[in-house]
Design a protein that fits this description.
Helices cover 26% and strands 26% of the residues. With 250 residues, it is α/β, with parallel strands linked by helices. The chain has a single domain, classed as Vaccinia Virus protein VP39 (Rossmann fold), CATH 3.40.50. The strands form 2 sheets. Strands 3-2-1-4-5-10-9 form a 7-stranded mixed sheet, with helices on both faces. Strands 6-7-8 form a 3-stranded antiparallel sheet. Strand 1, helix 4 and strand 2 form a beta-alpha-beta unit. The longest helix is centred in the N-terminal third of the chain and has 18 residues. It is globular and about 50 Å long. The N terminus is likely disordered. The structure holds S-adenosylmethionine (SAM). The site of S-adenosylmethionine has 19 residues, from helix 1 and helix 4. Pfam families: Methyltransf_25. This is Class I SAM-dependent methyltransferase. Keywords: Methyltransferase, Transferase.
C-alpha cells in the first residue's frame, strides 16, 4: 500500500519517490486545496488503503466502533467528513438518523451507495468548515479521522460553526490517529501544522496536514464550552477519541 492515512498500518511504505515527481497536490486541478485534491483522487482506493474490512484493522477498531455506537444510540446525528461511509455504517446501527456529509463528491457517492438500504441515513455535500446547507439542530455529531487534517488556526471557528448546528446538550464524538512512525517526508509549517507527503497507488503525490493533538491540546480547545469531556485511547495505541456534550441552556 502506497496510499494510506496509516489509520491502522504504521509500518506502511512511504510515498514512492520515482513516479509523478511533479504531481504534487497543487497540480491536481480542478482542486486548488491539496486536501480536497488528495481525497478526490483517493476515494476509490481509500477503503483498501486503510485496511477497512481486514481482520487486523477490524480488531484495532472494534472498541472504537462500540464506543461510537454507544455514544450515538437513539440520536439524530450529523456526521462530518464521512468519506466512503465506513463510520456512517457503524453509527447507523444505533443512531436514530444520520446526515452524513463530506466535501468530496466521489467519496460521498461511495457513502451513498454503502448506505443505500438504510432509510434513516441521508448523504449530503457539505464543507465541514462552513456547513452551508446543513440545517439542524442535531442531537449529536461525529467525525472520524478528520480532526488530524484541520490546520490548527481553523479549529476554533470549526467548533463554533459545528456547535451552532447542534441542540443544547448534544453529544459529540471525534476520533483520530495517535502518532505513528513515518518513513516519508514530513515537516512543520509556520503555524506548527505537521505536513505529510502522501502517495496514491499510481504514484501521484500530495502534501496534506496531519496533526496529532495531545489530550491537553484537545481539552484546551474545548475548555469552558462543553460538558462531560472524556478522552480515551485504544488499547493498541492506534487512536484517540473524545466525547463531550455541548453546553446546556441555562
Ligand atoms: C481521512 S478521510 C476520513 C473519512 C472517514 N471519516 C473515515 O474515517 O473513513 C478525510 C475526509 O475528509 C474529507 N474532507 C476534507 N476536507 C473537508 C472539508 N473541508 N469538509 C468536509 N469534508 C472534508 C475528505 O473528502 C475525506 O473524505
Amino acid at each position: 500500500m502506497s496510499a494510506t492515512d496509516l489509520h491502522h498500518q504504521p509500518t506502511d511504505a512511504p510515498p514512492q519517490r520515482d513516479k509523478h515527481t511533479h504531481a504534487m497536490a497543487h497540480n491536481a486541478e480542478p482542486h486548488s486545496d491539496p486536501h480536497a485534491a488528495y481525497y478526490a483522487a483517493r476515494a476509490s482506493e481509500y477503503d483498501v488503503s486503510v485496511g477497512y474490512g481486514t481482520p487486523l484493522v477490524e480488531r484495532h477498531l472494534a472498541s472504537l466502533q462500540a464506543r461510537l455506537q454507544a455514544n450515538l444510540k437513539g440520536h439524530d446525528a450529523l456526521e462530518l467528513a464521512c468519506g466512503t461511509g465506513y463510520w456512517t455504517h457503524v453509527a447507523a446501527a444505533t443512531a436514530r438518523s444520520i446526515l452524513a456529509t463530506d466535501r468530496d463528491a466521489a467519496s460521498l457517492a461511495l457513502a451513498q451507495a454503502r448506505m443505500a438500504s438504510s432509510d434513516h441515513v441521508r448523504c449530503q455535500h457539505a464543507d465541514a468548515y462552513s456547513l452551508d446547507g446543513v440545517s439542524g439542530p442535531f442531537s449529536a455529531a461525529f467525525a472520524l479521522f478528520w480532526w488530524s487534517h484541520m490546520p490548527k488556526s481553523k479549529i476554533p471557528a470549526f467548533l463554533s460553526t459545528l456547535h451552532s448546528k447542534l441542540a443544547p446538550g448534544a453529544q459529540v464524538v471525534f476520533a483520530d490517529q495517535l502518532p505513528y512512525e513515518w518513513r516519508g517526508n514530513r515537516h512543520f509549517d509556520d503555524e506548527g501544522n505537521l505536513l505529510e507527503e502522501r502517495a496514491l497507488l499510481d504514484g501521484t503525490r500530495f502534501e496534506i496536514v496531519k496533526n496529532f493533538p495531545t489530550e491537553a491540546e484537545l481539552a484546551g480547545l474545548l475548555a469552558g464550552t462543553v460538558d462531560d469531556l472524556v478522552y480515551s485511547t485504544g488499547a493498541e495505541g492506534r487512536w484517540w477519541m473524545i466525547s463531550y456534550r455541548t453546553a446546556s441552556c441555562a
